[in-house]
Amino acid sequence: MFHPYVTFDELRENARFLLSVGQATFWNLSVSLILFRGTKLVDQVAKDNLLGEMIYQWAAYDYKFIDSKIKLLAKAMNFNNNPVMVKLDSAVRYVENMLCKLNEQLDNLKDIIITNWDELDEHKHNIKEQLHHIQEVSVEFFLSAIYIVENDEKIDISTLKDNYLCEIDNQIDLLNSMFVEYINRIETEIA
């Protein structure tokens, strides 16, 4: 999402697009391009006087943004391994992966054991809706942060971040509860 030439409009459009295709994870919303030595883009960024110092030991460069306000937004999106964000990433990945695996396994049992498919399908649908809602919460936070930074609002962005962390933590807990309930229903069906 973040690169030296990105604009606020592009960030908004990208966030909405990612949400429309179910890929608006916080990671995807907040990721910054890493400029590696030897790439053509490094030459262009240097030519435009946006190239910063070398960072990391593996030859990557820091950079400025063409719009200096974007740097404030990029910093605001950095949660530095916040436990809630680690929980978000792991919970969402786990549930998404397990849903796929469970679907495969349940398809093999469809004609043999399971009689109450409608209830299981409803649980699965609700979990998918919750996964989407988590992305909506992340996009809403991202778009609000853009608005604050772009318009020089006198709102403390750390308050917005704290509110987001609280809300997303609650949504993760709800997702986990829904998934446990789904597993329990599956176990009841196949027991």
Provide structural commentary.
With 191 residues, this protein is mostly helical. It has two domains: 8-76, no CATH class; 83-190. It has seven helices and three strands. It has helices at residues 8-20, 26-30, 40-47, 68-76, 83-109, 117-150, 157-190, and strands at residues 35-36, 51-55, 60-63. A three-stranded antiparallel β-sheet has the order 1-3-2. Helix 1 packs antiparallel against helix 6 (117-150) and helix 6 (117-150) runs antiparallel to helix 7. The chain is elongated and about 65 Å long.
What labels describe this entry?
191 residues; elongated; 2 domains; mainly alpha; 3-stranded antiparallel sheet
Question: What are the low-pLDDT stretches, counting only 5+ consecutive residues below 50?
Answer: none
Task: Give average pLDDT, whole number.
Answer: 91
Seen as an oligomer or otherwise, the chain set is single chain
The strand count comes to 3
Give the CA-CA distance, first to last residue. 47 Å
Number of helices: 7
Strand content: 5-15%
Mind describing the biggest β-sheet? 3 strands, antiparallel
Total number of distinct structural domains = 2
Order of helices and strands: HHEHEEHHHH
Using only C-alpha atoms, the radius of gyration works out to: 21 Å
> What is the general shape?
elongated
The strands making up the biggest β-sheet line up spatially as 1-3-2
Structural class: mainly alpha
